[in-house]
Write a structure and sequence with these properties.
By secondary structure, the chain is of the alpha/beta class. Helix content is about 35%, strand content about 25%. It folds into 2 domains: about 1-160, Rossmann fold, CATH 3.40.50; about 190-310, Riboflavin kinase-like (Elongation Factor Tu (Ef-tu), domain 3), CATH 2.40.30. Strands 1-4-3-2-5-6 form a 6-stranded parallel sheet. A 6-stranded antiparallel beta barrel has the order 9-10-13-12-11-14. A two-stranded antiparallel sheet has the order 7-8. The longest helix is centred in the last third of the chain and has 23 residues, at about 290-310. The two termini are about 40 Å apart.
Length: about 300
Amino acid sequence: MKIIRGITNLKNQFTQCVLTLGNFDGVHLGHQQLINHLINKGKELNLPTVVMLFEPQPLEFFSPNNAPSRLTSFQEKVIFIEKLGVDYIIAIPFTQTFANMSADRFIQDWLINKLQAKYITIGDDFRFGFDRKGDINLLQKYAHNNDFVVESMPTFVWNNCRISSTAVRQALLNSDFHLAHCLLGRDYTIQGRVVHGNALARQLGFPTANIHLHRKKPALQGVYLVKAKNSCSNQSYHGIANIGIRPTIDGKKAILEVNLFDFSDDIYGQYLDISFVQKLRDEKKFDSLAELKQQITQDVCTAKKISAQLTN
């Protein structure tokens, strides 16, 4: 799979394509079925498959403080979409200039002239263009006169629950990781590279692997029992994770800190997949580091008991 960053970097990678476009936050089962359908259509027409993403996601651009929490970073989306077998991702920088583009111009200049899409499929609720005036009906008007086919994918349902990024966020908010798994088709994970932190956790006796979240508002907040898989060594561990701003030390930016049980290796620079098993408590501000250390000790004890029960 190849990533094309911006429409200006679309040169002659392909002449025609089959296309879908959207946010694809979470790359949940609905997204996966849509993309799998696109791949099958690409094989049928002998054309490359293209997924168009927007970064930042539109609501993050228009209302950064009120946008929904983010399920997946851009890099995580790329990883999940690549596993499905897509040929190209076109990552569009969502800027004011792009936001001002009319839906008609977007279809004519980008989808028809530049991408030469012969088949386009989108979710039934997807909107695009200035004032969100673009939809499946507008695409179909252009399709009749421009030799391409448009198809809207129906809403996918699991156990009477509409599969959507919103439903996944709600499941995570409720700490219902089983439901999240059913909607995603996999455990909810956060992937990232281990970076150096401020070493405070190590001073407290609980060294952590620190992972930047690459999103302003994560979908989880608090302390969790987690499973961690090292992408480099393929080894897995249980541990305890805090995801939040660390109010006791007046943190400003959310980060993921993971303490792996009975582990002391140097894994800086390596990549971990953190999957969330059970929530232990909300993040809170403590009056002193001594209180924080006491709470972490209790959290680790609780998490190890749960881990032992799950293992048995």
